[in-house]
# Entry
Amino acid sequence: MEVPLRAALLGWLASDPALSATLNAVVEEAPTRTSLPWLAIASSASADWSCKTAPGREVRVALELHCRGDAPDTAAMLVTAIEARVESLPRNQADFHIATTQFLRARAEQRGQNRRAILLEYRFRLLAA
# Structure
């Protein structure tokens, strides 16, 4: 269920008109030749979350936004839009049903050459469809 969730999440984020107008890429891993800003899945991990009647998984997904700016609030509105879109991912998917979506943590980091990286981590609890 982890791989279908990753695909569904990337498709959902990429299909948002506001995000696609702002981001140069929404991809599964860091793009090699894409200008900033872009969003990628930095990592994911899953564990069993089955119940008596259905198989399930708890999947943690870390999204990483890369952008430019030296102000602490650089990309604040973009991060808010990404968070809202992640949390509105439709619960009923072809291969699974999302029981819960929970924001876990965020981390912002200033890097060299006026670059910023903002990590957003979520936990999804899924049951097989």
